[in-house]
Amino acid sequence: MSEKDYSKYFQTTYKPDEKKKKPKSAEDVGYSQKEAKRRGKEEIMVVNFDPIPDELKALGNGKTYCLVTFGCQMNEHDSETIAGILENMGYTSTEDEKSADIVLYNTCAVRENAEDKVFGHLGALKAVKMERPDMILGVCGCMSQDESVVNRILQKYQHVDLIFGTHNIHRLPILLRDALYSKEMVVEVWAKEGDVIENMPKVREGGLKAWVNIMYGCDKFCTYCIVPYTRGKERSRLPEDVIAEVRDLARQGYKEITLLGQNVNAYGKDLTDREYLFGDLMDDIRKIDIPRVRFTTSHPRDFDDHLIEVIAKGGNLVEHIHLPVQSGSTEVLKKMARKYSREQYLELVRKIKQAIPGAVLTTDIIVGFPGETEEQFQDTLSIVEEVRYDSAYTFIYSPRHGTPAAGMEDDIPEEVKKERLQRLIEVVNRIAREKNEEMRGQIVELLVEGESKTNPDVLSGRTRGNKLVNFVGPKDCIGKFVHVRITEPQTWTLKGEYLALVEV
Ligand code: SAH
Ligand code: SF4
Ligand code: F3S
């Protein structure tokens, strides 16, 4: 990795020992969201993670880290890498923020309430930091890539020791060393990236289900969304690297993988040396001996017929498709720059349902986008009725710093937004309940994940469609596949009756 010239990424790293002026804003450390928006033509380089230098390998011996994750699956998976790096430096994990030697917040910037939570934690930790000045408090993840957040931390949360961005995770050993040996905040946030870093250490939880990144970044620039700024441009991992990782997970006995990306079905578009898209990757992964393969998130615009055809082959490719719609109104979709109309979305759903019987469709929906009329909101209610989603994540629009929508007049009163959300949730829940009701009496295959959270006598598992089913059964089926009969469908979960262990 050392031959890479990072200067072209417009960043400067603030290192306290360089005698530069102490940074007061993101600009002073060379980070700007405008730069993050630019999509350059630089070659994407696939580089190997530099081994952790020997002198840093024992840095954490006898010490603990507490890593708190606030974001999406991608964020969770990044946390697995961060944990991998820290454990390779000798640190062990703890859940206690108050006693940990390192506290790291892996943050999410997608909505304001996600950010508020982090600022709450940062505020609360100030007293702990005063008492134990030797602890390291760090902020990473998507909020670090938001200029306004970096400014706020630099100005108001000076007890933070370290800020690093989503493109800087592989630099953690060095950054941590800098933070430990300096009295001032270490900030490294790169606006640009061109790299795919392979072979970073990872600590995966549980041994049953694993996330596998297939691509990074997003080039869609939906007008409300901060992710293209926080995660950089779309870049795919090489198919051979993804496949090797999946094979390795299969060998280790993992039962389910989820292919991850902000926009997984844009996979391969940036691979200049070959014609190989997401459908091709899925078709190759289908042949690997891992019982279940999921993916998230797919964008309706990039959902091509070949991908539908491949998913329809079934086998280990499960029939659950998370297909964010965001709005049912073509005009709103246009303002969101989603690049499809209501009709195109519905046509895609029709094709999916025809090719993949029993497909479980889930979605994301935003209410109260600037200028959304009551009628346009009703288009959202009606698309939910038409598609009949099994479940949906529903959100109130939250203006994000630096995005085009933040410049639009946020003209819907808060009460109206809340009321729309409530009405939407009612429809979503009613349909979810009806869809679950359709499963009454059916025999389904579950991957048994463990004891239910509320009652250790009850086990829970997930169907291929990702529905959570609780049942009473022998403990030794944890980690295995079973058949159960659905006896009592509810809105969010179902109850079942244990039938038998199955080989998958
Ligand atoms: N890449 C995924 C989604 C990532 S963000 C996709 O395109 O589907 C997850 C969800 O958060 C989005 O689908 C959207 O519904 C919601 N979201 C994103 N930005 C938002 C904002 N500014 N306000 C409210 N919800 C938002
Ligand atoms: Fe955000 Fe749109 Fe990209 Fe999803 S596709 S991450 S909503 S910009
Ligand atoms: Fe949040 Fe970043 Fe994921 S903004 S949703 S953690 S990509």
Provide a short characterization of the protein structure.
This protein has helices at 33-37, 73-88, 112-131, 147-156, 172-180, 227-231, 239-251, 278-285, 305-311, 330-336, 342-355, 374-387, 414-437; strands at residues 45-48, 64-69, 92-93, 102-107, 136-141, 162-164, 186-188, 195-198, 209-213, 215-216, 235-236, 256-260, 292-296, 320-322, 360-367, 391-396, 443-451, 459-462, 468-472, 481-489, 493-502. With 504 residues, it is of the alpha/beta class.
Topology:
Blueprint: H1 33-37, E1 45-48, E2 64-69, H2 73-88, E3 92-93, E4 102-107, H3 112-131, E5 136-141, H4 147-156, E6 162-164, H5 172-180, E7 186-188, E8 195-198, E9 209-213, E10 215-216, H6 227-231, E11 235-236, H7 239-251, E12 256-260, H8 278-285, E13 292-296, H9 305-311, E14 320-322, H10 330-336, H11 342-355, E15 360-367, H12 374-387, E16 391-396, H13 414-437, E17 443-451, E18 459-462, E19 468-472, E20 481-489, E21 493-502
Parallel strand pairs: 1-8, 2-3, 2-4, 4-5, 5-6, 6-7, 9-12, 12-13, 14-15, 15-16, 19-21
Antiparallel strand pairs: 10-11, 17-18, 17-20, 18-19, 20-21
Helix pairs in contact: 8-9, 12-13
The chain binds S-adenosyl-L-homocysteine, iron/sulfur cluster and FE3-S4 cluster.
Main location: cytoplasm
Subcellular location: Cytoplasm
Biased composition (Basic and acidic residues): 15-27
